[in-house]
Design brief:
heterodimer; A: alpha/beta; six-stranded parallel β-sheet; three-stranded antiparallel β-sheet; elongated; B: alpha/beta; 36% helix; 14% strand
């Protein structure tokens, strides 16, 4: 039995955070029904880039990635009839995950009391930028604003420039994985109490929880941690090698001589570099020497030689490097997924490897309304004619 | 209704070090698990957050510095501490006995060390058949790189995140291009991704275990796990052959978006114009309504194309205002805007405080730490008792409790473990951490700034 086998999840909202949460639950074996508004569907379908740069709602790459292993239906949950069907679905649902704004959520009557009246065992997960209560609850935010308000952005980038945001909506991904944890915790608790509960996830606070140094720096000694200083010794920073960038590192409990020997420049063997304080004192000279040494290396041979010597160097890899990575290949990490409209490509798999499962992607992201027949027909017992009625009314 | 702790009755053996996995243990303790951190009093093998990472109250390590570091306290709150020298047969025997009466084990040794100590899943399963074990490593327990050690700041570019991050540079002809240099999201981002994924896997594994009695091994490779957070970016290569795109602080389709300077030292705001409505509201807020009819910015396409000029206009406006003024002016116009908060501002933010993000811990008087606030969690379970339970443990404070009460050793057996240096409550070996005055740290760029005579 897979970890969350037998759990049914209903996903509302869209874009990134709720879909990522539901994808992780799906990857643990839960059965996901993704509910999209008829017509345009999940707003994530309009997010680029697109397969073949064709802005077709079935070809959004973020959407394709975030919605594997799910079934999809359309339903206008704002209409009274749509709400009736939503409630029928909710009565057979274990987890509802949505990322509407607090105002949308109120107008849709998705508060826990209304939901619990339909299904007292329901775990209802709400993901928002700032939470459902508090002075900023109604402030709009894109990913960069969530990063800024979490304290994370201030510490990203170089100290002599403006803070620098990371691409790819990482705030919403971090919120999504936290939401999946909280949902699973509520399911675990339900085993003992028999009751569901509301779960509230604030994306900016999930990111703020990363500040395990900046916060104690201030409230232990009044110090404000900043962005990376530009004047370093070259270690623990991105440095140019012959074919790209590497991160040389002195961490990993090996003596300096091992590091100096790996980089392979005689001047580095000087005793004055062997201690941490010496490397700080002679930082500028050291950085120049390291740069000279690294310029004789390509990234991958240096990285592998470092690992073999129990050092912990890194290297900057791009998408193509990762797809060609022999290590990920041997671990069977990328999974070929064939989508009926977008086509076939290798997808990144689940993060953790579980002894209980051979990880699979059994379904590509659903086409808009792809499983209407299956779910309304088989699960809710509607006939084809009933569905025609609902379609004509714009409900599905 | 009485709020219950989701994990009450669950015992966790936390063998892990540094950031990612200890923080997992901290959250399990917040949820009510009994988390026993396995420490050692031998300085060469101790968790370095006790001895190297800092910070110390008033920048003073004090005598028992190994119990006083703020990052250690954050990552290990609410746990118990058992010291064990795992190089000794006696220490390993105690560990296996403890695992046999525990539910979850967290460890982050490299696979080579895990095997050498017999802490691999097949071995531990013999001690506890329904164990949930998380083995967190850089590269996982299979594959050609599996024996490589790792650390988050070197992993981050390795798992591709750095490729999607970088400054935009102004070319000689005035156009912008992505910097050739990838950047890092910083703050050991990779560690936290591993932390969150491990928590999710543990909660799901405990759920199944309660239903089926089956344990789970979570082979968590931080490298692979990091890739799973950028999968959408990789598909651009798979489908379109396009490498990662670096776009500074800009948004792929919504313009302008950026990070703009305000009055004061190192003060910034970010804002995003999502659509025409936001754009008109921004023009109004900037006091430049004529911009709204400027052809260069008439639609999302032209705003995207001419964002360098827009950045100049917006930056010119923000530069002469405080961060609070900019946020207030733009907030009322309804566009996404946020101050870029530093650690001090984070701790005083009325929203985060009002929501209870920071939880107070009263430290025992002997610690000299006093009353401090710690980061709570980004999620809330309405009917559950989830909270920071207390300070991180002093070295070996639970030696007696674990060895005598849980494992039933006699006082004389405990005494001989102490005599043989298997357990100990005082750090053995190593030097006290050197202290660099905050003023000097600021000069060196290790910190951005500091407040004199700070009190919490």
């Amino acid at each position: 039995m897979r970890l969350l086998e037998g759990i049914r999840v209903l996903e509302l909202g869209g874009h990134t955070s709720a879909p990522f949460c539901a994808r992780l639950l799906a990857d643990c074996g839960a059965d996901i029904i993704k509910v999209e508004p008829p017509g345009l569907g999940d707003p994530g379908r309009r997010k680029g880039p697109f397969a073949g740069d064709d802005p077709n709602p079935e070809k959004s790459l973020p959407f394709l990635y975030l919605n594997t292993n799910k079934r999809g239906i359309t339903l206008d949950i704002e209409s009274p009839t749509g709400r009736l069907f939503l409630d029928r679905l909710l009565s057979e649902t274990d987890v509802l995950v949505e990322n509407f704004s607090p105002a949308q959520r109120d107008s849709l009557s998705l508060d826990f009391d209304s939901l619990a009246a339909v299904n007292p065992g329901l775990v209802s997960v709400s993901i928002t930028p700032f939470g459902l209560a508090g002075p900023y609850r109604d402030r709009p935010a894109e990913d960069i604003e969530a990063f800024a308000w979490s304290g994370h952005l201030y510490h990203s980038g170089d100290s002599d420039r403006e803070p620098l945001h990371n691409a790819l909506d990482q705030a919403w991904y971090v919120a999504g994985v936290n939401a999946a944890t909280a949902a699973a915790a509520a399911l675990f608790q339900r085993l003992f109490t028999g009751r569901g509960q509301p779960v509230e996830v604030s994306a900016s606070e999930c990111l703020a929880a990363h500040m395990v140094q900046a916060v104690p720096y201030f409230n232990y000694m009044g110090a404000i941690k900043g962005r990376r200083p530009i004047r370093g010794s070259g270690f623990e920073e991105l440095m140019p090698a012959r074919d790209g960038y590497v991160v040389p590192s002195v961490q990993g409990s090996q003596p300096w001589s091992v590091v100096a020997d790996l980089i392979g420049l005689e001047e580095l063997e000087d005793e004055k570099f062997s201690s941490g304080s010496g490397r700080i004192e002679h930082g500028e000279e050291l950085k120049e020497l390291v740069a000279r040494g690294l310029s004789q290396w390509d990234r991958k041979p240096l990285f592998e030689a470092s690992g073999q010597r129990r050092l912990v160097f890194g290297m900057a890899q791009d998408s193509g490097d990762l797809y060609a990575c022999p290590h990920l290949e041997e671990r069977g990490y990328f999974v070929q997924v064939d989508h009926p409209v977008a086509g076939s490509a290798p997808y990144a798999g689940f993060g953790p490897c579980l002894s209980s499962d051979q990880y699979e992607i059994t379904r590509p992201a659903p086409l808009l309304g792809q499983h209407n027949q299956e779910i309304y027909g088989d699960s809710l017992g509607l006939s084809d004619l009933d569905l025609v009625c609902l379609r004509a009314g714009g409900i599905v | 209704m009485l709020r219950q702790s989701p994990l009450s009755g669950i015992r966790v053996v936390d063998l892990s070090r540094v950031f990612a996995m200890p923080y997992v243990g901290a959250y399990l303790a917040d949820m009510g698990a009994e988390v026993i951190k396995i420490d050692t009093h031998h300085a060469a093998f101790i968790d370095t957050t006790r001895t190297i990472t800092g910070p110390y109250p008033d920048n003073d390590p004090g005598r028992e510095f190994w119990n006083r570091a703020g990052t250690y306290q954050t990552l290990n709150r609410g746990k118990r501490s058992l010291t064990l020298d795992l190089r000794s047969d006696e220490g390993m025997a105690v560990l296996l006995d403890l695992i046999s009466v525990s539910d979850v084990v967290l460890e982050n040794f490299t696979p080579r060390v895990t095997r050498r100590f017999g802490l691999d899943y097949p071995s531990l399963r013999k001690a506890r058949p329904d164990l949930v074990l998380v083995s967190n490593t850089g590269y996982g327990h299979s594959g050609p790189w599996s024996d490589f050690g790792a650390m988050a700041s070197a992993l981050e570019p390795t798992h591709g995140t750095g490729a999607f991050m970088g400054y935009l540079e102004l070319d000689e002809d005035g156009s912008l291009s992505a910097s050739a240099t990838p950047n890092k999201i910083g703050n050991s981002f990779t560690d936290f991704l591993a932390c969150w994924s491990a928590q999710m896997a543990i909660m799901a594994a405990l759920y199944r275990r309660a239903l089926t009695g089956q344990g789970t091994w979570v082979d968590l490779a931080m490298y692979q796990n990091g890739v799973s957070f950028i999968g959408e970016g990789l598909l651009d290569f798979a489908f379109n052959g396009r490498p990662a795109r670096r776009q500074g602080n800009r948004h792929e389709s919504q313009s302008p978006q950026g990070c703009y300077p305000c009055l004061g030292q190192d003060r910034w705001v970010v804002l995003t114009v999502r659509d025409d409505r936001d754009w008109l509201a921004l023009c109004e807020a900037l006091g430049q309504p004529d911009l709204a009819s400027d052809d260069r910015f008439a639609d999302p396409i032209t705003r995207h194309r001419n964002q360098t000029e827009l950045d100049r206009i917006i930056g010119g406006w923000t530069r002469s205002r405080t961060q609070a003024e900019v946020v207030e002016a733009l907030r009322s116009s309804g566009i996404p805007v946020a101050p870029v908060l530093d650690g001090e501002q984070l701790l005083s933010d009325p929203h985060l405080r009002g929501r209870g993000l920071f939880e107070v811990v009263e430290h025992p008087e002997s610690s000299g730490i006093g009353r401090r606030e710690y980061l709570g969690r980004g999620w809330k379970l309405a009917s559950a008792d989830v909270a920071i339970r207390g300070p991180a443990p002093d070295l070996g404070e639970a030696n007696g409790y674990v060895l005598e009460e849980i494992l039933g050793l006699t006082a004389s057996q405990v005494k001989s473990l102490r005599r043989d240096e298997v357990i100990g409550e005082e750090l053995a070996g190593g030097a006290a951490p050197g202290v660099v005055p905050l003023q000097r740290q600021a000069e060196l760029g290790w910190i951005a700034d500091y407040r004199e005579n700070f009190s919490p």
